[in-house]
Design brief:
heterodimer; A: about 450 residues; alpha+beta; Cytochrome Bc1 Complex, Chain A, domain 1; 2 domains; 6-stranded mixed beta sheet; 5-stranded mixed beta sheet; 16 helices; globular; B: about 475 residues
């Protein structure tokens, strides 16, 4: 969720790329190796640098390990609120000056908040690398929270909520479902938070939250583009080097055991029903995530996937389906949605979907299906290398959340060792009726 | 004036602020940042990729670019015509036609088609635009032959009578019905139908007419649409990637060469501006909405508009969508009314439009519209003309980011080829564009904006709850037409 639009970066991270790896095909492909540099300041700030001088621009991103799952009850949305506040001035710069400076110099800046991290980024001409690093350093420790501006920004955030959540059927439905299914846990609200909490958050709350989580040892800096690692080392030492690390007392994440197997019927402003199936799945670094990705591909995501072939084309019970795992640093869920053709076909679609799951568990997958998955992974990985920023985001996210910058490459390397039995076992473990919650978004009346 | 305002804001902030600062090795100050931000970007030069151009006997124009950086092949195609060729009584037929074409062919049934794509890792899509159909496809270079084979099959061998015809119609019908619940779709439907009344452009988003006509569509309608719009002489293909140009050309000739042109002639009637639309305000009542979506616009000259560079830069000052533009500055940074607001021109062959889009709380719709019109007037009548600083900021930004927009050869070629083939511009137009905006003065940008923008002519379409939006308009004596769909 950034300052301009709702978007979940996590949705695009899965199966993106694999550095320095070759997957076998009939005709071997040479996959270019991508190098990155890494260093860590004494205060704990981790820095990744990917050098790419193809155009004279440099992108600087800073990830803070704090997001919606870290929010206490009553203060939902505070991570995102703070993200907005980070553009409203520091001890040195007034409201909007950060944007003005970057704009005037011919650059661009924005930010995004997710369930488990907050991300700020700037893209500037490479001659302005020092400006970008200095601006990020300044607002890591010198944020100024003006009560008048916070009140105005509160209205902007409430409008963002109306625009991106309240008036979008799917998002509004998912919010209701998560609230019901994950009551009293950190997953019961969306990143933007409840409207009443957004109304309630005070300047003191924001200041406290900022002091707790915005420190060098809770951040990862990523520089991609026309810059050398030596330049970045010198500048980060200069601007961040003296900042003190601090103890992070993170609230313990609570997983919701309740609700499994339940079906929630939620009335929405829609003319066709939508079924949301939430399966409890482990944190993003769990080895089973690989099998879960393969299952989703074969079941609902790929061209000619089983559910599309059977439920959409053969039985004509649905008009659309897809699935995505939410790969957080804590256990979360995998979402599969079905859009039935009508209220009458809704129960039939759910029944037919379960039949496909059972068939997968009992019969496994075919060699051809496995081949298609590998092809999909390989092409995704190679196409993603068109833009080194994808690489940077993945490395930083994996390092921040799991302390494993090369997590994806490890997962993809494991792909060649994955067996049909592994996939069957994962399906039997996670894709069961008692491990899921169903939300039926149905037309009002 | 601006400096004084900034200082005064800073003083207020110092008095009111809740400060959480920490001292650092570097003394952060406004002066430090102003010094670091001194930057004038060089005027960029966009390299035109080395390409091979060929025109096949049947009229297909092919541009080939070798790029061996990654083992991939990317294809982009323009089939001229698009929605402008539709019969206004049967809107959407061209979308149904393309949907059928990318679902199966006479050689590959629906199942085989999906399997072929999946096994060869082929991504293929066709999107309908007002003046053309756009084909995008890509694959790993190991599958280049299958990629070209599939695209050729899709274009030459549609099967509109396939057994999935009924299902596709039903699915598209349901998507259309669903889009009636989408405020943005509703605003587009009304906006286009008013601005382009009676023209194929105007019925392109007409959900209600499509809901009426779709159930009676037959394979013959699609076949007829295909014969009237799809012809090799109107096709331009751009292929970039890890191949030898000679071998790729031979492959294209092999797969497309036997496709005979039927001499299809494209039609098109220029848009006629209906002056009775000036200053109309139309409110589409959506009782469940908790905000208002607002679209304000006017007709503009067609895509050959000779002053588009000056207008583009003037518009960026008003509504680029960045925080530095005037609309964002007033409506978000000062008032806190909107999350985003932006403006821009959509250029089309038969008549373009200029529009401002935003979403806003219901009780702020009237005032937001008023502010937007005021901002238009401030530039129009020169009360607050476009400044050198505003123009420089946008020129400097463009100079920095232009090269990035065309760093991938497929993007550069796609843009260049469309400009050359569809607009008859010169091959080097990107660099001419760069030169033009760098030579532009603030006075020229201001003059062009004043010449073409008439705030009193803007049509306003709002989608939201009438009970909560209408009172402010009534209170201010402003007439609003209300459409009740629900």
């Amino acid at each position: 969720m950034n300052r301009f639009r709702l978007s979940l970066i996590l949705l695009i991270i899965s199966f993106l790329f694999l550095p320095a790896c070759v997957l076998g095909t009939e005709e071997q492909l040479l996959i270019p190796e991508i190098d990155y540099h890494y260093f860590k300041l004494d205060n704990g700030l981790q820095v990744y640098v990917i050098e790419d001088s193809s155009v004279p621009l440099v992108e600087l991103g800073i990830f803070y390990k704090v997001g919606a799952i870290d929010e206490p009850p009553g203060l939902t949305g505070i991570s995102h609120f703070l993200e907005h506040a980070m553009f409203l001035g520091t001890e040195s710069l007034g409201k909007g000056q950060l944007d003005q400076l970057v704009d005037l110099a011919g650059g661009y800046t924005n930010a995004a908040t997710s369930f488990d991290f907050t991300y700020y980024y700037m893209e500037v001409p490479s001659s302005l690398l020092e400006l970008a690093i200095a601006l990020e350093a300044d607002r890591m420790v010198n944020l100024k929270l003006d009560p008048v501006e916070i009140e105005r920004e509160r209205e902007v955030i409430l409008q963002e909520r109306r625009q991106g959540l309240e008036n979008v059927v799917f998002n509004a439905g998912l919010e209701q479902l998560q609230a019901a299914a994950f009551a009293d846990t950190s997953l019961e609200h969306q990143v933007i938070g409840w409207a009443e909490d957004i109304q309630r958050i005070t300047v003191e709350d924001l200041a406290s939250y900022y002091r707790t989580y915005y420190s060098p040892n809770n951040a990862i800096l990523v520089v991609v583009g026309d810059a050398t690692v030596d330049q970045v080392k010198d500048l980060t030492e200069k601007y961040f080097g003296d900042f003190e690390p601090q103890e992070i007392d993170r609230p313990r994440f609570k997983v919701a055991p309740q609700g499994q197997g339940r079906v929630y019927e939620l009335q929405c402003h829609t003319n066709i029903p939508i079924a949301l199936l939430l399966y409890h799945t482990p944190a993003g670094d769990d080895p089973d995530l690989l099998s879960i990705g393969v299952i989703l591909n074969i079941l609902v995501n790929s061209e000619g996937s089983r559910v599309k072939e059977e439920l959409q084309k053969n039985q004509q019970l649905i008009i659309e389906t897809a699935g995505v795992p939410r790969e957080l640093r804590v256990p979360s869920y995998t979402l599969i949605y079905l859009v039935p053709t009508s209220m009458e076909t809704l129960p039939l679609a759910l029944q037919a979907f379960d039949t496909e799951i059972e068939r997968l568990i009992e019969e496994g997958i075919t060699e051809e299906e496995f081949q298609i998955v590998k092809k999909h992974v390989m092409r995704s990985m190679i196409f993603a290398q068109k833009d080194p920023r994808n690489m940077a985001i993945n490395i930083a996210y994996s390092a921040l959340s799991f302390d494993q910058p090369n997590l994806l490459s490890q997962q993809l390397a494991s792909l060649s060792e994955l067996t049909v039995e592994d996939i069957q076992a994962a399906a039997a473990k996670y894709f069961t009726e008692d491990n899921r919650i169903i939300g039926l978004l149905v037309p009002i009346n | 004036m601006i400096e004084i305002k900034r200082i005064s804001c800073l003083c207020m902030a110092m008095l009111l602020a809740f400060t959480v600062g920490v001292l650092a090795q570097v003394e952060f100050s406004e002066q430090l940042f102003l010094e670091l931000a001194q930057n004038v970007n060089e005027i960029p030069y966009i390299e035109i990729p080395d390409y091979h151009k060929a025109v096949l006997d049947n009229g297909i124009t092919v541009y080939l670019v070798e790029d061996h950086q990654l083992p991939i092949v990317e294809l982009e195609g323009y089939l001229m015509g698009g929605r402008s060729q539709e019969n206004p009584q049967l809107p959407g037929v061209i979308d149904v036609m393309t949907h059928m074409m990318i679902t199966g062919t006479a050689n590959l049934d629906e199942y085989e088609f999906a399997r072929f794509k999946a096994l060869h890792g082929i991504n293929l899509n066709m999107v309908t635009h007002f003046d053309h159909l756009q084909i995008t496809a890509d694959a790993l270079s190991t599958d280049k032959e299958q990629l070209i084979t599939l695209v050729a099959d899709v274009l030459q061998n549609p099967d509109f009578s396939a057994d999935y015809f009924g299902r596709i119609i039903q699915e598209l019908y349901q998507y259309l019905a669903f889009s009636l619940y989408n405020a943005e779709q509703l605003s587009n439907m009304v906006f286009y139908s008013v601005l382009y009344a009676g023209h194929p452009y105007g019925t392109s988003y007409d959900i209600l007419t499509m809901l009426q006509s779709f159930p009676s569509l037959t394979p013959e309608h699609l076949q007829d649409c295909y014969y009237r719009t799809v012809d090799p002489q109107h096709l331009v293909l751009i292929i970039v990637g890890d191949f030898s140009a000679d071998e790729m050309l031979a492959l294209v000739e092999d797969k497309f060469g036997s496709w005979a042109s039927q001499g299809v002639e494209l039609t098109g009637t220029p848009v006629i501006v209906d002056q009775s639309n000036y200053d109309r305000i139309i409110l589409v009542n959506k009782p469940d909405a908790t905000q208002g979506i607002m679209k304000m616009g006017i007709n503009m000259p067609d895509h050959s508009f000779s002053e588009r560079v000056a207008f583009m830069m003037a518009n960026r000052v008003l509504g680029s969508g960045e925080f530095s533009c005037r609309l964002m500055n007033v409506l978000r940074s000062e008032k806190g009314y909107v999350y985003g607001v932006s403006s821009g021109v959509q250029y089309f062959k038969l008549g373009s439009f200029y529009a401002i889009n935003t979403e806003v709380a219901e009780d702020k719709v009237w005032e937001t519209r008023k502010i937007i019109k005021e901002q238009l007037e401030l530039i129009k009548n020169g009360t607050l003309p476009i400044s050198d600083e505003e123009l420089f900021s946008n020129v400097n930004y463009f100079n920095a980011f232009f090269p990035q927009s065309y760093r991938h050869k497929i993007d550069a070629m796609s843009n260049i080829v469309y400009s050359v083939e569809a607009l008859n511009w010169r091959e080097n137009y990107l660099n001419e564009l760069v030169a033009a905006y760098n030579q532009l003065t603030a006075e020229e940008a201001q003059a062009v904006f004043s010449k073409y923008v008439f705030p009193e002519r803007f049509i306003t379409v709002i989608v939201g709850n009438k009970d909560r939006i209408l009172p402010a308009f009534i209170e201010n004596g402003v007439e609003v037409e209300v459409i009740d769909l629900f």
